[in-house]
Request: fold
Amino acid sequence: MLIRYHLDEHVHPGIAIGLRARGVDVTTTADVSLAGADDEKQLAYATSEQRVLVTHDCDFLRHHAASIAHTGIAYCHQEKYSVGILLQMLLLLHASEGSEDMLGRVEFL
Reply:
């Protein structure tokens, strides 16, 4: 099954626009009224919808280390890539991995 993404509020909105323009199923915190929600709610939403959470927030790495169940986390330090490069990295992940490959996994971009 193809990866579906959920972008937390720290991810630039242009990423969602770019992914959607290329046919990728993506939600954002604003789309699902989770702006300002805590990490646990963000992760619970992504998991319940079988989406890979895309984030710049290293707190999600702590949740992973604490063995909190999730359907995948794609983590990238906020200053590592431009919007365009991060978009390309997410498209590459989408093309190369299935949602089942991401279960309980962190992908460091």
Summary: Residues 5-108 form a domain with the Rossmann fold fold (CATH 3.40.50). The chain has a mean pLDDT of 94. The chain is about 40% helix and 15% strand. The CA atoms of residues 54 and 74 lie 5 Å apart.
